[in-house]
Amino acid sequence: MARARTRRSLSTFSDSPRILIAGLGNAPYPSTRHSIGQYIINGLASHYSIHMSSSRGGHQGSNPTGSITLFKSKQLMNVSGPSVVASMRAGQVPPSHLVLIYDSLTHAPCRLAVRFGGSAQGHNGVKSVMASLGASATSKPFWQIRVGVGRGNPAGSGVDGEVSQKRMINKSVDAAEWVLGPLSEEEKRYWGVGGKGLDAVVREIDRIMEKLGEEADG
């Protein structure tokens, strides 16, 4: 029988499943759309009161119970896979307990899309992680939290100050140029500490941990 747990305090249980949450990005360019995964890791570190320390491959820290480890690679996006996988192996974290957070051009700004497994869909950072794992779209699946950055239209304020979540995809805009552009102030607030976007990410992490806990309980 599964043990009863409260969603709010999942990470405080000493017997909670251990997960590694890795945010993809380009470390030298922390406030670009392409680095939104690492921007969110910064917010999660504050939320969980995790101190991030520099290591050979990146910046890493864990909560007191060790159930959540956060990781940001020091490498550029396209070659970040080896450092992510090295962190997994050091913490004995299996692929099914990896949560990868990264930008998505195919989702509107401030949208979250969560899935377990699936292909890289052209994202070079995800490709690098999969190559380092020796994984395909179906073997060694891991959790993916895709964060919408749109394409060609930045997030703006909507009704009552909410961030507009209209689908804004303009394929005539160069993808590489777009993702290397800066996050808007609205996006920074939304995904930052106290923002509704960061709260949504925390809820998804709780949901993932609950599912992994249920699987462990049988």
UniProtKB/TrEMBL annotation:
Keywords linked to the UniProt accession: Hydrolase, RNA-binding, tRNA-binding
InterPro entries from the UniProt entry: Pept_tRNA_hydro, Pept_tRNA_hydro_CS, Pept_tRNA_hydro_sf
Domain of life of the native organism: Eukaryota
GO terms for MF: peptidyl-tRNA hydrolase activity; tRNA binding
EC number: 3.1.1.29
Claim: Transport is one of the keywords in the record: no
Pfam hit, one: Pept_tRNA_hydro
Sequence similarity: Belongs to the PTH family.
Protein name per the record: peptidyl-tRNA hydrolase
Species, as recorded: Ephemerocybe angulata
Lineage: Eukaryota, Fungi, Dikarya, Basidiomycota, Agaricomycotina
